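The record is kept unedited without comment:

——
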Amino acid sequence: VALLALGTYTRYLLVSLVGEKVVADIRRDVFAKVLSMHTAYFESSRTGDLIARITTDTTLLQTVVGSSVSVFLRNALLFTGGFALLLITSVKLSEYVLMMLPLVLLPIIILGKRVRVLSRATQNKVGDISSHAEETIGAIRTIHAMALENAENLRFTNLINETVSTALARIRMRAMLTAIVICLIFGAIITVLYIGGQDVIAGRISPGDLSAFIFYSVVVAGSLGALSEVVGEMQRAAGATERLMELMQLEPEIKAPAEPYHFSKAPEGRLSFEHVTFHYASRPDTPSLANVSFRIEPGETVAIVGPSGAGKTTIFQLLLRFYDPQFGIIRIDSHDIRTLDPREWRSHIGLVPQDPVIFSTSAFENIRMGKPDASDNEVREAAKSASALEFLEALPDGLNTYLGEKGVRLSGGQRQRVAIARAIIRNPSLLLLDEATSALDAENETAIQATLDRIMKERTTLVIAHRLATVMNADRIIVLSDGKIEASGTHTQLLSSNPLYKRLAELQFSE
């Protein structure tokens, strides 16, 4: 009994530990795969479903590796040992058992496949629930503002009901599998008992041997029944595994070449687009950029203006290599950016988006994401340059203050300044400003613009602009319309030579 207790403790400890470590490895690999995927992949994928794969699907595998495998091994051992004793006790009766074994295994194989399909369907439904919950919570202010609580509750309830219905179908199938296996197993035992009883009456086998045979049969039957349960659990995990393998087998469309070019020092910032044409997958017949060519010298500041949908943001996304153009070449210092490692290339770019992302951590860590090895003093200097240090130090814990999910504790202008500080600390060769001062009031915009003007002189800068101050200070302005360059020149030149720019100036730069 002491050895049994010690063995059980050891088995549970070691197998559970293996389960935890296996699942930790799988989660790490799946998360790394998600991070490595190209940007376009996330446009057609749901965040909640990806989260469900990393959490719920891997938890199912943990149950199998940390529990079901142990049960499977124990019962497989009981089945093997019990069947060996059946053969030793009576070869004749064992032959009858062998004849009936296929009848038991057949429903396990057939119904097990059905359980696997239903399990995957259930996991997909769980992914739908995660996606809906993530989307709803992320838009909670809009939900409250539009009084959509009841409508969202109803949608969520419908998703839950669909998930329960699919799960019930899976549960019924597993219950049917177990019931059929039990009927067949104990039906086989009754048959063997009847045949063995006839042999006892005829004197071909002793009552003791028959009793032993029946005892071993019960051990074999019980282990086989437990194995059918484990198989059902494994089929359920197989559905989750398929979803994970489906993700792990994907290959990012944007990745480093086999032998990427590495910069020995920071790029000078000489940038050129050469006959670039690009179509988004969702609009294959309409080019977002059509035969676009321009050149920017190191240290030059170029503004891009044009109506919505002209292709301004697409230029930024191609520069960041979120996508590759179908035609044409983008070069940095004469090197095609497709010959570079995307991550190394992006490390030389500083981006200030119109809608900055603030992470759920402290101000220190948010700014330090621009340069992970930056010291606290460097972070403070960057915050000061972005006119963010004063309000960050006024927070309860200063720059160590948790900023809330997506920076909810900051105003729009404050989030913008944190994003600018993140770009400043990066000290990039290429600076991309996408309406960098759009969320600021007039006073802060003047202060930030002065900072931006200073750092823009030191590096190549590309600006998506609607505000006159940014355009006036640019060395050159490119006017985009329907994915094509309509004109290029200074503010004064374009006012007199380009009707589209003049109209945009009258509408947007009236101040």
About this structure: Strands lie at 271-278, 289-296, 301-305, 327-332, 335-336, 349-352, 430-434, 460-464, 476-481, 484-489. DSSP finds 17 helices and ten strands in the chain. The chain has a mean pLDDT of 82.
